[in-house]
Amino acid sequence: MKYSLTPVGHIESPYKEKFAVPRQPGLAPSALASVILEGEACNEDTVRGIEQFSHLWILFLFDQNLEQGWTPTVRPPRLGGNERIGVFASRATFRPNGIGMSAVPLKGVRKEGGKIIIDIGSCDLVDGTPVIDIKPYIPYSDSIEDASGGYAAEAPQTLDVQFDPQPLAFLAKDKDGKNKQQVIGEVLAQDPRPAYKKGKADTKEYAVHLFDLNVKFTVAEPVITVTAIEAFGE
């Protein structure tokens, strides 16, 4: 049997492309985002009582990957990008039904221009991602003290991030510059490069679209240097 799903909303976030999005929620705690409710779900009754909870489960679609299909095995970056494991033993984005989930802190609920907006933190979702459901995080059942994390038992190691003078001066002129600098630092500290690049000499200058910015950086492990920031599209 086949079933159809109608998104209840979409994500607004600093991540304008897949590159550099943290691989799990919580790795960039300063990255704030919003769920913009849509259609019949855009109703004050749907969020009644939600602020009793500190965290939410966001269920969403990996919409940018759906047309590319999926395979039974994947190569997780945490295993160096070489070892294959089953797709159901991973959180890979290429999945049979393209469904993902993130546990995020609830920052608040507001109504703006006829829209119901749920503000969240520690986001790991690309701007525009379709949201298919929202559920409260229940600590007594959702947190399992003796759970085993397999190959992902520990949080990933991070690199140090430093900013050259030009990006610091650019951000100093932005009224939200301090937050943007914090998010950029948290995101890049995860080292968003492909797994095969890590642990090797790398002379490439990378760029990522965050907020309305084009952020350029280089990597000389254990340091990532933000070399330039400019308005995206310039």
Automatic annotation (TrEMBL):
TsaA-like domain sequence ranges: 5-146
Highest taxon listed in the record's lineage: Bacteria
Cited InterPro entries: TrmO-like_N, TrmO_C, UPF0066_cons_site, YaeB-like, YaeB-like_sf, YaeB_N_sf
Matching Pfam families: TrmO_C, TrmO_N
Key words, A-Z: Methyltransferase, S-adenosyl-L-methionine, Transferase
This protein's record includes keyword Lyase: no
Molecular function via GO: tRNA (L-threonylcarbamoyladenosine(37)-C2) methyltransferase activity
GO biological process, one term: methylation
Family, as annotated: Belongs to the tRNA methyltransferase O family.
Protein name: tRNA (N6-threonylcarbamoyladenosine(37)-N6)-methyltransferase TrmO
Species: Grimontia sedimenti
Gene: tsaA
